[in-house]
Design brief:
This protein is mainly α. 77% of the residues lie in helices and 0% in strands. It is built from seven helices and no strands. The protein has helices at 18-29, 35-44, 51-84, 90-107, 109-112, 118-163, 165-184. Helix 3 runs antiparallel to helix 4, helix 4 packs antiparallel against helix 6 and helix 6 (118-163) crosses helix 7. The radius of gyration is 32 Å and the shape is elongated. The N and C termini lie far apart (86 Å). It holds the Pfam family Phage_Mu_Gp27. InterPro entries: Phage_Mu_Gp27 (IPR021874).
């Protein structure tokens, strides 16, 4: 039987009423409060929670806040890049951010094994690589189709020019003027 992995932490702190949890978060933001001070405050409000439990909760909350801040910074970087270059491919930029996050996860895998198995991160990286290869194939196919379309357009233009003696004469005159200008200007 497969071993069950814990994905969510359930503690006395997470079971607190929302208003108390908000006050707890505010107290934890104030660095003048120790975990022991916060545990005493909780006890005075009828919640018997140890300073260790408060500390563990604070660490988890700080880690979550750090992840949110890092994600926000990446999102701002993408927005700035898109603002500077409107032709930027959003999906490619998003994929790069996702790949960066996955590579960070893999590089610090020893800290994150409980949250994401290394083989899963590897599969996700492989999937993203396949998407990149597929994107390159689509771009090559698109360029090939565009080249064929331009060749067909060129053939149609040549046929149209040859079919109309007036256009042929005007084009010959324009080319003659360009040749003279190029050859006579220093």
């Amino acid at each position: 039987m497969a071993e069950r992995r814990r994905t969510r932490v359930s503690s006395k702190v997470t079971q607190l009423p929302e208003d108390i949890k908000e006050q707890l978060d505010a107290q934890l933001l104030d660095t003048s409060n120790t975990y022991e001070d916060v545990a005493r405050w909780l006890k005075s409000n009828g919640f018997n929670i140890s300073k260790s439990a408060v500390g563990r909760y604070a660490i988890r909350a700080n880690q979550a806040a750090q992840r949110v801040a890092e994600t926000l910074e990446r999102t701002k970087a993408i927005a700035a890049a898109v603002e500077k270059n409107p032709d930027l491919d959003f999906t490619k930029a998003s994929r790069m951010v996702l790949m960066d996050g996955l590579m960070q996860r893999v590089s610090t895998a020893e800290d994150d094994f409980a949250e994401m198995p290394l083989d899963k991160a590897g599969r996700l990286i492989a999937s993203l690589s396949r998407v990149g290869i597929y994107e390159q194939k689509i771009i090559r196919d698109y360029k090939s189709k565009m080249e064929l379309a331009f060749e067909a357009l060129e053939e149609d233009l040549i046929k149209a020019i040859k079919a109309d003696p007036q256009i042929t004469k005007e084009l010959h005159t324009l080319l003659q003027k360009a040749r003279e200008k190029i050859l006579t200007d220093d």
